[in-house]
Every structure is written in C-alpha cells, then in structure tokens.
Amino acid sequence: MRILVTGGAGYIGSTAVDILMSQGFDVNILDDCSTGHADNVPAGTTFIQGSLLNTSDIGQALKGCDAVMHFAGKSLVGESVEKPELYWSVNVGGTRNLLDEMRRANIQKLIFSSSAATYGEPEVLPISEGAPTRPTNAYGATKLAIDAMITDEARGHGLCAASLRYFNVAGCLKSARGWLTERHNPETHLIPNVLRSTSANPVKIFGSDWPTKDGTCIRDYVHVVDLIDAHIKALNSLGKTGHEIFNLGSGGGYSVREVLAASSSAIGKEIAFVDSPRRAGDPAVLIADISKAERVLNWKPTRDIGAMVGDTLASFG
Ligand code: UFG
Questions:
Q1: What tens digit of pLDDT does each residue of 159-217 get?
Q2: What is the pTM of this model?
Q3: Interatomic CA distance for residues 212 and 209, integer angstroms
Q4: Which CATH entry fits the domain spanning 2-170+221-248: 3.40.50.2000, 3.40.190.290, 3.40.50.720, 3.30.70.20?
Q5: Fewer Cβ neighbours under 10 Å: the N or C end of the chain?
C-alpha cells in the first residue's frame, strides 16, 4: 500500500514516514520545506518538493497512492492570530485542493492532522470529541473548517476519513538517519524550550497564577511515536465511507512546573526559569478524553513524560 504523506519532511510527518516504511508501506512525500527539512526525507521514498497550493504538485504526489496522511500546514497559534489569511489560504485552501485532487485520482482514504485547538476553552474536562468547538485563534478555526470540509466530502463523495485531534505532541524517534526531533524556528513548545534553558537565557513560565494546583497551565502530552501508531490504526480502521474524529492525548495532564521537574531529573540538575506573565490565548487546562480512540482503534499511548523529555534531551546531543 502506498501512502502520500503531506508534510513528510516536518517533525511529525517525518516520524510517520519512518514508521510507515518500517511497517512495509511505500511512501510518497509532498512538502514545500517552508518549515520542514529536506534532510528528514529518507532514501526509498518519492519526494515531491512542492505545495498544496499547486494542484499539479498534488497530482504528481498522489501518483500510485492508495491513501493520504495529511500533516502539512501552518501550526503556530501566535502566527495564526497575526496572519489569519496565511492560515486560511494554506491550511483550508491547501486541503481543499488536496481533496479535489484525491477525488480526481479516485483515492478515498484520508487521515488528517486536526487539533485540540478546535475546542477552545473547555467547559468540561476531560475534553471529548462531542465537546463544543469554539476555537480561540485562526489556527484552531482553520482545523475546524477542514474537519467540516472532510465531513461533507465523505457525505457527498464517499471519502473514508479520520480527523485526529492532537493535544500536545512531544518526544521524538531515533531513525537510521538520526533523531527526528522538533526543529522549529522560533521554538515555542515547552519541552524543547525547557531543555535549552540556561541561567543566561532561562525558560519563561507563562503564568503562575492559573487556577491549577501549582498555578501553572496543565497540558496533555502524547509521544509522537504513540501518535503515529494511532494514525496507522486509524488508517486500518477506515470503513467504506464516513468521517470519524478522535482525540489523541494521554488522557492525563502535567503542569508546566511538573514538566520542569521531569526535565530536571532527566538532566540531573535544576532548570533555570523565570516566572513571566500569562501568554495570550492559553487556556488553563487541556486534557483529552481518549476513550473513543482506545475503544474504536484499540490504541493506548505507552510512553510517559519521562520518555518524551528523555528522547528530546538525547536528540539535542
Ligand atoms: N509554556 C511556557 N513556556 C514556554 C513555552 C510554553 O510556560 O516557553 C507553557 C504554555 O503557556 C502552555 C504549556 O507550556 O501552558 C504548553 O505550551 P506549548 O507551546 O508547548 O503548547 P500549547 O499547549 O500552547 O500548544 C499545543 C500545540 C498547538 C495546539 C495546542 C492545542 O503546540 O499546535 O496545543 O491546544 F494548537
């Protein structure tokens, strides 16, 4: 079976490529390398360095494929607030093109990288797939719009699809070509920032007055290898038609201070930090209800925060 992995040169997409190949899948990759890295692309794949905004690039990338894992897109919450047009154009416009080209090529299986950002500030914890969707930024709004587009494509044209709503993805996989680690610029994610913290440039803790046990935000971290395992299980579960949505997290939460403590024990010394003002748009607590993925996909995350921090630390060398 040949899979098109869009965004296959990025952090999560390249991990998917590696695991898919190790399980015997053939892989095509479409990535414009705007945030991905060409050196993440392994030998043995068909790599099209191209854009979702160019339908002929998509057509070429879909050649010979039976299914698509769609990771490509803009994914910085802060940037999405400053440049919403970029997010609507690349994420929604790009996915519209992808769906059209898939229909043209008669490819009917899709796994889409959606986000917990579709829910916005939760009313009830943990957050289930039936929770209200009120995104608080353009990033989440575009992921929600794409989920709606996919539902309609499934209804109207028989697409079989799963949208996977990621909570906080962390950790990394060591591949034959090195660690497939986060290489964002700028890096906004907590774990890499904590591990790079120095006394000259300490990590900022965004808010210590949240209504949580230690005053810092709580998030649900899931290891990228567990996340990709869920993608493959979702692909194998696709029915004849229809669109299913699954939350992917660990089902539990860690505060920012707890992540610092786990990092400190991995490094073997205290982590320098500075208490800072809250970051705009951050909800206090996000924890996934993952019971649907556990029940329907027979999926269970197996790697804890220690593994996520440990792998990221090892990847920094
Ligand atoms: N944080 C800090 N200091 C930092 C970085 C983060 O204190 O240097 C805090 C944040 O305020 C937040 C927590 O650590 O409370 C996690 O922040 P991240 O930036 O690592 O992740 P987010 O929860 O903001 O975002 C993640 C994904 C988004 C997705 C969102 C879903 O990265 O793509 O979850 O809600 F939209």
A1: 999 999 999 999 999 999 899 999 888 899 999 999 999 999 999 999 999 999 999 99
A2: 0.97
A3: 8
A4: 3.40.50.720
A5: C
